[in-house]
Amino acid sequence: MKLVRLLPALFALSCLPALAADDGAKLIAKYNCLGCHAVDHKIVGPAYKDVAARYRGQKGAEAMLMQEVRAGTKGKWGGPVAMPPQQISDTDLKVIVQWILAQK
């Protein structure tokens, strides 16, 4: 009897990564990030896959990237165009950064 109650909960938990991925992609579209970035190629800013590769394995990568998005950057990726500071809620920014760092 307990197994019957446990199965729906396990199924729901298994769906969380997919929901987070959908949320990250939706938020990137909502905040118009795709105007300067793409997943797999450089536009004005670096590709999200390149950002993920640069930060992969670094301790504190999520917090560091959140700070860079929040404050903006200039010349970090070799381009002359600066990314302006972004006004994004901490909750949305965390989902976005986690989505970016998950790109491969």
Automatic annotation (TrEMBL):
Residues 1-20 form the signal peptide. Keywords: Electron transport, Heme, Iron, Metal-binding, Signal, Transport. It holds the Pfam family Cytochrom_C. Residues 19-104 form the Cytochrome c domain. The keyword Heme applies. The keyword Zinc does not apply. SUPFAM superfamilies: Cytochrome c. This is C-type cytochrome.
